[in-house]
Amino acid sequence: MKTSLIKLLLVMVATTWTLNAMAKLPDPTPEEALKKQAEAEKKAASEEAAKAALAKAQDRVNQRYRETHKDAPPPVAVIAPAAPTPPAPAAKK
Q1: pLDDT category of residue 76 using cuts at 50, 70 and 90
Q2: How many CA atoms, within 13 angstroms, populate the side-chain half-sphere of residue 30?
Q3: Distance between CA 22 and CA 26 in Å, rounded?
Q4: What is the arithmetic mean of pLDDT over 15-33?
Q5: Of 55, 75, 56, nearest in space to 65 by CA
Q6: Long-range CB contacts (< 8 A, 24+ apart) of 67-72?
Q7: Which are the contacts of 75, defined by CB distance < 8 A and separation ≥ 6?
Q8: CA-CA distance, 40 to 45, in Å (whole number)?
Q9: Interior CA angle at 45 toward 42 and 46, to 5°?
Q10: What is the pTM of this model?
């Protein structure tokens, strides 16, 4: 029991020191903020390119499947679900 209490106190002290040190960190400089923003934009552009490449590859696979399987059922159109409508107000008597 005594060792668990000591461990708990050590964890509490370490946490306090860590939080205190983090609170004193300076704000990022404008150059750092711009660099972080540029990295985020680059990552977003890369993700968009990856999505486009995936869609293109899926289209190629679908086209190849349709060419080799003439008796396959026709593709089903995907329709986005409509937004739920709010309930109608109750009629007053």
Answers
A1: confident
A2: 0
A3: 9
A4: 83
A5: 75
A6: none
A7: 62, 66
A8: 9
A9: 85
A10: 0.49
Pull the structure tokens for residue 19: 């939080």
Residue 18, token pair as written in the block: 């860590």
Contacts of residue 36, defined as CB under 8 A and 6 or more positions apart, other chains included, come to 28
Q: Which three-class secondary structure string do you get for the chain?
A: CHHHHHHHHHHHHHHHHHHHHHHCCCCCCHHHHHHHHHHHHHHHHHHHHHHHHHHHHHHHHHHHHHHHCCCCCCCCCCCCCCCCCCCCCCCCC
16, two tokens: 């306090």
d(CA 18, CA 7): 16
Q: Which two tokens stand for residue 40?
A: 């985020």
Residue 82, token pair as written in the block: 């409509």
Two structure tokens written together for 77? 């159109």
Which residue type occupies 19?
L
